[in-house]
Amino acid sequence: MIGCPVFQGSYPGLFKHVFDLIKPGVLRNRPVLLTAVGGGLRHSLVVEHQLRPLFGFFEACTVSTAIYASSDELASGAPLAPMIAARLANAVEQFAALVGDRQANAA
Hints:
There is one protein chain. The chain has 107 residues and is of the alpha/beta class. It has 3 helices and 5 strands, in the order E-H-E-E-H-E-E-H. The protein has helices at residues 13-20, 46-57, 82-106; strands at residues 2-5, 31-32, 34-38, 61-62, 67-70. The strands form 2 sheets. A 3-stranded parallel beta sheet has the order 1-3-5.
């Protein structure tokens, strides 16, 4: 699972700098669940327009369901919004299936 905060409509420079140091083949066919947190819903497409292409470059196997939450939806002490909880459950199920398939193929 990989996650980052949204900064001015994209991932922060320090986040990208970490991936500039990774050799392209290292993440090939590795399961990745994409997550991001931003200040509002207007940044929700950062996952599809910024993170998914980045991990596509590395040929990672990204889960089709991504998780985005705004700071309002993650209020301290408040229960997780039902929509986010449902997306999270779906994404975790998909991620587990990818990890399970990977382990089955390795055996």
